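Appendix B, Record 12. Input sequence as logged:
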Amino acid sequence: MITLDEIKKISKLSRIEFDDQELKEIQSEFRAILNTIDRLNELDTEGVEPTYRPPLDVEELREDIVKPSLDREKILQNAPEHEDGAFKAPTIVE
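Logged structural output:
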């Protein structure tokens, strides 16, 4: 069983705010998922060979080719702030 405190901790770590009703709904959804996993864990898999499915669509990688690009100064003119030739963005992670 997952507690509301655990849901709040996950919410805080993911930096997503939920109201109390949403937290209760998420708790209910987590419980359903965990109950399903518990049921799967009860299955007898004795003698069942573990399997995996490799990706079927393996594409060949192309060679990198250097091509002309946009002028850096023209691009930076559109930025509210820039520093050392790069866009400057506000800090979002503490």
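The mean pLDDT is 90.
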